[in-house]
Records
---
Amino acid sequence: MNAWYKIARFLGKIILFFGPPVLVFGSLPENPAVIFSNHYSFLDPPLLAIMLNRRLWFLALPEVLEWKFIGWLIRKSRSAISISSTGPFGLKGAIKILKSGGTIVIFPEGTRSETREVQDFKPGLAMLTKFAKAVPIAIDGTFEAWPRGRRLPRRYKIKILIGKPIEFSPEQENEEIVRIAKKEISLLLRQG
């Protein structure tokens, strides 16, 4: 695990110690895995990196890597693979990580949701499921803690609900995979 990644996780744990509770339900399967999750807030990626006891690589939009402090920390910790909303996904790097036994995190909605409704999923998730088990994770509470458009976060209890791994068959169409994946996230959120 990269030293900067460890430092970022350690600092995050200290910050969370003084904040509202973050509860994790369920457990991750063995590597490799493709974690997919709903995306309400800027809090979602760091919460997963801090609370899941595993080295994670996130698919991120290129502009995220250009942010001043956060982008610098992401680049230093080597925790993100740049993707483009207009071009092809940075799938070669993600596939290489999966083939070496790593865990990739993707937010298939592509951006933070403006409502509590789960948006339609983009097909990048379906492509990655050809190389590893897919693990649904619902993050509940980050919409209330730091929704899109709010300048600063507020205290709010957060739950991370890890679903059962899904092994999609290579014959399944991308549309079917993203439909099933979206349904799994919606079901987990209702349980939260």
---
Amino acid sequence: MDVQIAPSILSADFTRLGEELRAAERGGAGLIHIDVMDGHFVPNISIGPMIVKAARRVTQLPLDCHLMISDPDRYIEEFAHAGASMISVHVEAVTHLNRTLTAIRGLGCKPGVVLNPATPLVMVEEALGFVDYVLIMSVNPGFGGQSFIDGSLDKVGRLRDMIARSGFNVHIEVDGGLGLENVAAVVRRGAEWIVAGTAVFGTGDPEKATRELRLRALEPLTV
């Protein structure tokens, strides 16, 4: 099982972004998660392709771009050219999901699909053959520092069963309210990629926080 920590730069100190990313990388981060918000699909505005381009200059880790935006088709090419390695879109924001996911792969990026907390798993069942990963939101998207929605554990487990039945090789990523107290439980249910913002960059020591979170996430695999 390929368990990776994906620190979210939404919680990083942008005056020291290069240092923050290098510290997380030293701590064992496997991906860098980049939350893109437009103030329309979610009630917040965050960052765009220029930050992706800046992050690409300071790390060789895969850049995991999560597009929390309306009409993502207009922007996927721009993010791909900026250096994104992975691009995920919300099933709630895309009209022709197959077309969008195919376009992402055609740009050389791994395509992913995202589900909000109240969106049922059936919405992605037909897309499993076109994605590399499914991102389960365990908070309502738009802001960092929110509490984990407990029902997300069951949802992750049900998604793992759905993927197993499908026969496709699809990773499960989870984003929202994750930390030392609950990351092992999420991994036990089948999550592989763990997004953490406040739990990494809100500690003052992202290297140590990433290392500790990774060790806790790996516990279910070593017992």
---
Amino acid sequence: MKIKIYSQLSIDADTIYKILPYADVSGPVQRGQVLRDIADGYNVIAIIDGQFEQNLAVTPSEVMDALRSGVRVYGSSSMGAMRAAECENYGATGYGKIFDFIKDSPTFRDDYLGQLFISRNAGWQTKTYMDFYFAAQDLVTKKKISKKTALTLCELYENLFYAERSEAALTQSIQNLKKGSASLSEAAQLIFSEAKNQKTKDAEGLLLLIKKDLEDVQNINAKIVSGAQASPDPLSFYPRDLYT
């Protein structure tokens, strides 16, 4: 079983190997790599992160080519969630809150997933709108901020260019409002300080789903083999002249 995982931004390689130790781990996917994976005989491809500006993005048609070739394709968190949502009707498997948001929201935009970074080891320079949105919703649920405050902050954050979405940029947008800026600034600081990365949580969940699916397949295969071994003649249901 050959497994390829495209990530290392939403989730690090060490965590991936802890869940799927036999997987081949790559950085964010770009156009053409999935087609090479098909040729290389991969059985499972999980797209979590992907490139879209520095290199051409993986296309839905590439995902569909993989599915037609019998490859099981999974997606979550970022580029993977978007492509999985686009190709779900053709057999792709998506997972997570971000995947569900993409499917259900009529106002979803690609830039909600965009994030600026220098290198995989240098840390994020910006925070995605999706991470900010779910962090705000979580604090509303915990009654740490009001729904009205969350909606205002999400609107301000949404209006920022994806490569400029940061606490500093949001603070400047809040100050431009003048009215109620103090309470909004406090709420924004809370979101940035307490928020967990939704992309990471979705990625971990996806990997656990893949692990479970693979274990289920192994169990089914073991039962088939066990049943065949228990039969006095496993091929008795085939016509004999097939083998003469």
